[in-house]
Known about the structure:
With 149 residues, the chain is an alpha+beta fold. Helix content is 19%, strand content 42%.
Amino acid sequence: MSPTPKIGALAVVLHENRVLLVQRSKQPDAGLWGFPGGHVEWGETVREAAARELLEETGVTAQPDVYIDNLDLLKHDAQGRVQTHYLLVGVMCRYQSGTPVAADDAQDARWFPMQQILDGALPMSARVPDLLARAMRVDQPAARPDKRP
């Protein structure tokens, strides 16, 4: 049986001009900041996984809303062989309640000004600023025909 990619959900939560990030405690990306998230469990939708992982890692509750983007993350060894392959799905989640507290797979959990992340001012997982920029565009009322301003 050949290896298959692992599917992960990323919860992108924007609130009051800030974005919620966690500092990873485990590999891959231990010590780096990124969106709360993790593996999609058997029988679970990506949206459900995003909300579950968000709550488990931060104690924050949010309503999963729209898909933002898919990210293929492949890591290769020195000979060019694929060592890990993740398909990560960014999900916009609408903040409902809670104060971030690091739990589960996180060393820390905090709100950051969005511009700080867009400027790359933290040690972050690959493509965090790119996914945030996409989320900010999705969050605009004109980009969301199903939502009234």
